[in-house]
Amino acid sequence: MKTVLITGCSSGFGLETAKYFLDRDWTVIATMRTPRDDVLPSSAHLKLLQLDVTDADSIRRAVEAAGPVDVLVNNAGVGMLGPFESTSMDAVREVFETNTFGTMAVTQALLPQFRARKAGVVINVASSVTLTSLPLLPVYTASKAAIVAFTASLALELKEFNIRVGVVLPGMAPETPFASNAHARVTQSFPDDYAPTMQAVLSGFQNYDGPVTHAADVAEVIWQAVHDSATAFRVPAGADAIEWFKRG
What we know:
Elements: E1 3-6, H1 12-23, E2 27-32, E3 46-50, H2 56-66, E4 71-74, H3 89-117, E5 120-125, H4 138-158, E6 163-170, H5 178-184, H6 195-207, H7 215-227, E7 234-237, H8 239-247
Parallel strand pairs: 1-2, 1-4, 2-3, 4-5, 5-6, 6-7
Helix pairs in contact: 1-7, 2-3, 3-4
């Protein structure tokens, strides 16, 4: 029985991916900043671990407690929306600490065991905003674009050790808490000149009725990427992401 470690499992893509792998008889190590035992079904194949991807000690403890891992899914992430001019550099660093450096740090912590076994898979969850340009998302987009570039280079670096690395690009998922979490980081104070753009973008999100991404779409694409060595390095997940991917 193989083991997958997934970050950010308290809700959304991470939670759905944990359920997906559990249903297919994998051992699942579901990590959360604050572990909750009420979001996943009880299973002898499930281990809940505390993991804050921005904390080196937390990463070390989680990796030690996890033991041998076959697949790493770096899913933990935060959003941010607002004019860059009015975004503090502390806020910028907060987003990069989770989305970019957190992904890198957890990956680095697990690579020694993958390399020693000459086997392993790393799947990084980025975003389809890296496929198209949208206003008011420069910090979030940059943090995810960095992961796409990181993944591309790492895939080449680790190929000789039989370690596969890929990136999944989900689209907009209004059914998950991610959007509301991103809105919690909406810049509240900005020059009036940006007000029309803010209003237009927020209205666009609220009134959007096109194709969207469901958490189950992302879980399925992650499963396929783990199991099919022929899967492309970059894979869109969700109807809207696929549409953007084709255009790009």
